[in-house]
C-alpha cells in the first residue's frame, strides 16, 4: 500500500513518540529500583526473637515490679493531701507484712502543677503486688485514707514498670535534691533499640551520680520510658546536662535515639517530707 509523504512523516513521529515514552518509563522504573535498593542498604534488619522485650531489657537477678502513680490534686487541697500521704504512706513502707517499699514521693514544681508522684517497688513481682493490694483492702486506716484522698483529686493514673538492667536500683538518697522525671513515649517496636543505645549512654551520665533509676512500662501507657535524675538545684542540672555534650559518644546517642521518640515530657519534682529519696 502506497503512503503519501505526509503520512510517512506522521508515522515516523508516532514511532518516535513511542520510543521516547518507552525510554522514559524504563528510566523511571530503573531509577525507582535503584532508589529502593539504595535505601535498603540503610534499613536495619531485625532478627526474629522469641523472647519478650521485658526478658531482654529487665534485670535478671531480682524480680522487682514498680508502680508509678500520678495524682492531680485540687489546688486548694494540696497541703491537706500532702499531710494525709505523709501520715499513711510511710506506715505501709515500714510494715514488714507488706512486701513493698516507697521509693520516692514528690510534688511537681515545674511541669504539671498541683500534682503528686509516688513510686513504689514490689519485691516479688506481680504476686507481691497482689498480696499488698489484698491486704490493703483489709486495712481500715488505708481505706479511710483512700476515701479521703478521693475527695481531693481531680484525676489519677498509674503504670506498672520494670527497671532497665543497665540502671542502678534506686536507693534512699540524702538531700536536699530536686528530681527530674523525664518520660518518653516511644514508637512501637523501638524499645530494644532504645535500650541498646542507653546501655552506653548511662555510662556517660553516671559520672556525677545524677542517675537514680530507669524504667519501662508493662501495664498502662505502653512503650513508655521513665528516667529519674537527681540534682542539687536547677543550675546544677543545667551544668551537668551541658557537660554531657563534652563527652565522647553523647551526641551520637542523642542523634540516634531522638527519632525513636513520639512524645517526651519533663517534670521537676520536690520530695515530700517523708520521701526516702530526699
TrEMBL record:
It comes from the Eukaryota. GO terms for cellular component: mitochondrial matrix. Pfam families: NIPSNAP. InterPro entries: Dimeric_a/b-barrel (IPR011008), NIPSNAP (IPR012577), NipSnap_domain (IPR051557). GO terms for biological process: mitophagy. Residues 179-276 form the NIPSNAP domain. Belongs to the NipSnap family. This is Nipsnap homolog 2.
Amino acid at each position: 500500500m502506497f503512503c503519501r509523504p505526509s503520512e510517512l512523516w506522521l508515522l515516523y513521529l508516532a514511532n518516535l513518540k513511542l520510543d521516547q515514552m518507552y525510554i522514559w518509563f524504563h528510566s523511571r522504573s530503573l531509577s525507582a529500583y535503584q532508589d529502593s535498593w539504595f535505601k535498603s542498604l540503610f534499613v536495619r534488619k531485625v532478627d526474629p526473637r522469641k523472647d519478650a522485650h521485658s526478658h531482654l531489657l529487665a534485670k535478671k537477678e531480682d524480680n522487682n515490679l514498680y508502680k508509678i502513680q500520678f495524682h492531680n490534686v485540687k489546688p486548694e487541697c494540696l497541703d491537706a493531701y500532702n499531710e494525709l500521704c505523709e501520715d499513711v504512706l510511710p506506715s505501709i513502707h515500714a510494715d514488714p507484712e507488706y512486701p513493698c517499699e516507697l521509693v520516692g514521693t514528690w510534688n511537681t514544681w515545674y511541669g504539671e502543677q498541683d500534682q503528686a508522684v509516688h513510686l513504689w517497688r514490689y519485691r516479688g513481682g506481680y504476686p507481691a503486688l497482689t498480696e499488698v493490694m489484698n491486704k490493703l483492702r483489709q486495712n481500715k486506716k488505708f481505706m479511710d485514707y483512700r476515701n479521703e484522698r478521693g475527695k481531693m483529686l481531680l484525676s489519677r493514673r498509674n503504670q506498672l514498670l520494670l527497671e532497665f538492667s543497665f540502671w542502678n536500683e534506686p536507693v534512699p538518697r540524702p538531700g536536699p535534691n530536686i528530681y527530674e522525671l523525664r518520660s518518653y513515649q516511644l514508637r512501637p517496636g523501638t524499645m530494644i533499640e532504645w535500650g541498646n543505645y542507653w546501655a552506653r549512654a548511662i555510662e556517660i551520665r553516671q559520672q556525677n551520680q545524677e542517675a537514680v533509676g530507669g524504667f519501662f512500662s508493662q501495664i498502662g501507657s505502653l512503650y513508655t520510658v521513665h528516667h529519674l535524675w537527681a540534682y542539687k538545684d536547677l543550675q546544677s542540672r543545667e551544668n551537668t546536662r551541658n557537660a554531657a555534650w563534652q563527652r565522647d559518644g553523647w551526641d551520637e546517642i542523642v542523634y540516634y535515639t531522638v527519632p525513636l521518640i513520639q512524645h517526651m515530657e519533663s517534670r521537676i519534682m520536690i520530695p515530700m517530707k517523708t520521701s526516702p529519696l530526699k
